[in-house]
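User: structure tokens for this one?
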Amino acid sequence: MSTLWGIYALWYREVKVFLREKSRLVSSTVNPLIWLVAFGGGLGASISIGEVGYQAFIFPGVLMLVVLFTTIFFGLYVVWDKKIDFFKEVLVSPLSRTSIFVGKMLGGCTDGLIQSGIIILFGPLFGINYTAYSLGAVILFVLLLAMGTTSLGLAIGSQMTSFEGFGLVQSFVILPLFFLSGALYPIDNLPNWLSWITYANPLTYIVDGMRGALLGKSGFPMVLDLGVAAAYVVVLVAVGTYAFRKMT
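Assistant:
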């Protein structure tokens, strides 16, 4: 029971910090809407993707972008907690390193779900018509993505001692994963070399699953999309747990 209370306390602290940062909530809501209105509306005027509007086509991709940036930079808070010595107090508590990781990971997932939930509410404005199935499937993919990416962010943050290094994560991890996932374009007619890179990217299957659920337009079976998303979570949770155990 004490372990569960410890995990709850860490989760509650992370969510409370997130909700207090109103500017962060606003900016991470406005930015994806700008993507949908300006990028989707502008480029969509000259692109045809069958019967699906371009703004609706990229909506799952933009939703994925929100979760990626909300959760990966959750690892930055680990660096901050080290700076203010909060982490020392946590590490000397009776909680195991695994429990500490789980508490913080659940906090990051909750933040990602809150942020993506706000964007989901705007879906009908961009041509998204929800059903119980599509909404449930999208929330499931968002949850899996949030779990995996939060774990990755925590693993990276646990090994860093400065904020500056974390900025490189955006350039070398998040942006390549996002742009090579088919979030903004169909992957049907890509050059052969680019197709292989895209197929090796787990985010390709996550955005494909969301697009299949929302628009009925997917390149892979739903079972494959879910399987890759689940594997993404398992691998990154294992990496994050290991990194926390080795953290000094």
